[in-house]
Amino acid sequence: MSTNKAAIVIRGLSKTYQRGKVRRGDIRTSVQSWWSGLGNKKEEFFALKDIDLVINKGDVVGIVGPNGAGKSTLLKLLSRITFPTKGRIVIRGTLSSMLEVGTGFHPELTGRENIYLNGAIIGMRREEVNRKLDSIVSFSGLEDFLDTPVKHYSSGMYVRLAFSVASHLEPDILLIDEVLAVGDHEFRQKCMDRLLDVSGQGRTIIMVSHQMSYLKELCQSGIYLHSGTIQYHGKIVDTINHYINHFTTVRPLQVRDRQDRRGSGIVKLVGFKTLGKNKIPLNTIAAGHEVNFQIQLETNSANAFNVTVQLECYDMYGHLCFVANNAISNSSLPKIYSGDTITCHLPKFPLNTGMYFINASIHVTNQLADEVLHITTLDVEHGLFYPTGKLPQANKGFLVDYTWS
Amino acid sequence: MAITTIIEAGSPVQYWRKIKECWQYRDLLRMLSYRDIRVRYAQTFLGMTWAIINPLVSVLLLYFVFGVVIKVDTQGVPPLLFSMAGICSWNYFSRVVGEAGGSVIGAQSLVKKIYFPRLVIPLSKSFSALIDLGIVLLILGGMMIIYQVPLQWQTLMVIPFTLLAVLAGIAFGIWVAALTIRFRDFTHILPLILRIGMFLSPIAYSSTLVPPTYKWAFYLNPLTGIIEGFRWALFNTSLELEAVWSSIAVILIIMIAGIWYFLKMDQYIADII
For residue A311, how far is the Cα from the chain centroid? Predict the structure, then answer.
């Protein structure tokens, strides 16, 4: 790869954070840590570890990975919000980030004033905003509300205004962190068209999203991050496949070996299987079909009384979708023995298509015994929830039984 | 041709570059100040009138305590005018410092999401408070007409002393902003310090009343030189030059050190906050 084609060159980049204790605090802890000296070893973890990466000019790159993989940290380092612990980043050209909707808006100010405020925050000069004002306003379609305080705007109008300002920024490199997740479908399409248009002009775009469909559509290449390291860097389709495969195939076998647990360990989760009808293992779940989560438990204690198993299902944005807890629907298990399995039976899987993941935890007599985050990923596909086989717009919402008459 | 940015761990802080960046972001500085002014009085019933009521109440209170009850020596100046002239720069200063303290923490949703020179945040407070300073100065001007205070060449010296008050606000504002990020305790310490400062500044009394033994300490307060100078310009009250020089020196030292400390911490702000 020739380096003068590169927009971004990253060498040996690491970022560590201190676990638990952050560097802020009160004067007392500051004096204490000064007193106890620098020899005091603090517990650190790597948000990003020894990353090497070259991104070429004009590339549209999608970054995927589970929560906590370091995606946002990477964008923060590129945009200079935080500073690396180790390594070096060379950025050729101007760089800006597209802000999360509403950040830097003030509800008391009018739409017009907010355009200027937001523009200034993302680094536009006043003349630049003046020049682009008409275009921004017509893109947003909010001509009639320009002198209304934005607190009277609907959330949809808010999104339009914010995105219209941001999409008029003309940096060489643009960072987008999950901002396309909001807004109505039509406007989102308009934004995407503009984004694609923008990338056609040789602009480099780096975006983080959990919406694989958007990434597939927008990006050429992809980066799959996991635990702060780059697992895969290549074509976007291959990257997404790597990301999905990593969970759907490898994870169930690995539960026993997972070290990142919390809890006393009296009872441990050692196996997790996603099964369909007649206990057939599933790689993907069809919306509306039968699903069974089979959990294998192990204990080395004779005191494993009152065992509660809880499964929490989250969508890829980290929103809780449902909780399945045996103590709520039935009652906790009075006593378990090593090798016992417990199965959670969902007769009709209620979530729309998309990616979800499950956190599992076990409580023994109300004490946390074990917790495995992201024990499995659920890839939900189209299924016969409704007799027509149709489903509402992808990746959103619950499915409920209803009839029209 | 294109700008190349190099971010390297452990590289020394580029102070000059960061200061230049603040200039590049002057539109942001302006918009943040504008926002503060717009929002401060929005939705309040009396609106901008509050900018008049607040200083007036302080002045009447000081006038009552120092002018009516204690009857301090005002060197022939009407006590009400004397206090009014004293409170102009103090009000401005305490407003700037008070608001700058929590300013970066208050803007954390921005600070964590986008890069811009963070120094702009406390700086914007010193600009947004100028509107209140302007209003107080107008009231003072009105009162001087009522009291028929004669104007002279000296009156023009009000301008440099007002500027000095702005610089003092900037200097201390940067410090308290930086310290509040680092130590949250400052949210509690700051109002206390400002209250002490109000009584230790010669707002409603003259620093000539301070015993000579303590005078050096009194002059370390940069507001002493500013307030006394301001009054000297308007009413030709006595002014000791040491007060002015020490005020200038203290402000400069505090400002340079403040900018240095703030910029040194700059790269950690998003992690700490």
Answer: 19
Q: Does domain A262-381 have CATH number 3.60.120.10?
A: no
Q: What is the pLDDT of residue B197?
A: 93
Q: Which residue has the tokens 């930086």?
A: B178
pLDDT digits (tens, 9 = 90+) for A22-41: 455 566 666 666 555 544 45
Residues of chain A with CATH 3.40.50.300: 3-21+41-245
Beta-carbon pairs below 8 A across chains A and B: 127
Of B2, B7, B43, the CB nearest to A93: B2
Distance CA A317, CA A319 (A): 6
pLDDT (average), residues A255-280:
85
Mean pLDDT computed over A249-268: 74
Verify whether the Cβ–Cβ distance A79 to B115 is below 8 Å.
yes
A3-21+41-245 CATH? 3.40.50.300
B174 has pLDDT over 50: yes
| Arithmetic mean of pLDDT, A118-139 | 91
Give yes or no for residue B267 having a pLDDT over 90. Answer: no
- Count of CB atoms situated within 10 Å of the CB of B71: 9
Q: Is B220 on the interface with A (CB under 8 A)?
A: no
Could you give the C-alpha distances from A188 to A71, A145, A157, A207, B204, in angstroms and in order? 22, 20, 12, 15, 61
